[in-house]
Design a protein that fits this description.
Carbamate kinase; alpha/beta; two-stranded antiparallel ribbon; eight-stranded mixed β-sheet
């Protein structure tokens, strides 16, 4: 199996060309790498232009069917192309994909008490890891927009999947050497201080105690899920994650890794 890293690039920073170019340069020495990107700011902007609701619940976007159509158009279109162009400009042979392409990702709806409280939102049920490995073996860098069809229904509007959660599922499926959740924050802060290391067992208590909320809570849950699924290491932080193995916050696994 390939020794690969999975890198998730934060959606709020993707409209900053200098930030994205710095990401691309930082990714070059990490090859082979799989990139997953968000695009929340762009989705919110287009939703507002179209008079659609913009709201979040526990760090996840509340997604009507109309908003899901915007997610598909924006993430799979201009945002994905922007990331691919930056990576190719830095020297990586990047290829743009969405979770729909080739059945790469399959999702199931997020439900609470039997209700889809977030709307057209999903969580990853399956990753076609062999497809990603074929791209990597060909020397290509997959750049993935995180939307995925429900079950085998590839003809319907795909479910909106949080990019951190999608990256975690992909990292687990590939038994990634490392999952890097890159945004504009230096790491997980507790009492105002960035923590160099956190035990995965502490994730729930940090969230319940209010030390981590909204987007950071989503990242921590995704980190723990990636480790449970088979990723070997996870770090959360800013651009320094790409060139400094000590940067950010490392999340430690608390359970035995799969064989």
């Amino acid at each position: 199996m390939l020794s690969v890293r999975v890198v998730k690039l934060g959606g709020n920073e993707l409209d900053r060309p200098a930030w994205l170019e710095a990401c691309a340069r930082g990714l070059l020495p990490l090859d082979p790498v799989v990139v997953v990107h968000g695009g929340g700011r762009a989705v919110s902007a287009w939703s507002e232009r179209l008079g659609l609701p913009v709201g979040k619940r526990d760090g996840l976007r509340v997604t009507t069917l109309a908003v899901a159509e915007v997610v598909e158009l924006v993430l799979g279109g201009p945002v994905n192309r922007r990331v691919v162009a930056a990576l190719r400009g830095a020297g990586l042979d990047a290829v743009g994909l969405s979770g729909v392409d080739g059945g790469l990702l399959t999702a199931r709806p997020v439900r609470e008490a039997g209700r889809a409280v977030l709307g057209h939102v999903g969580t990853i049920a399956q990753v076609r890891g062999a497809l990603l490995e074929s791209f990597l073996l060909a020397g290509l860098t997959p750049v993935i927009a995180p939307m995925a069809p429900e079950g085998g229904n590839g003809s319907a509007t795909p479910l909106n999947v949080n990019a951190d959660e999608a990256a975690a599922a992909i990292a687990g499926a590939l038994r990634a050497t490392e999952l890097l959740l890159v945004s504009d924050v230096p790491g997980v802060q507790v009492d105002g201080l960035v923590q160099p290391v956190l035990d995965g067992a502490d994730v729930d208590s940090l969230i319940e105690g209010g030390e981590a909320s909204d987007g950071m809570a989503v990242k921590l849950r995704a980190a723990a899920a990636a480790l449970r699924a088979g990723a070997r290491a996870v770090r959360i932080g800013d651009l320094r994650l790409l060139d400094d193995a000590r940067a950010g916050t490392r999340i430690l696994a608390t359970t035995a890794q799969p064989a």
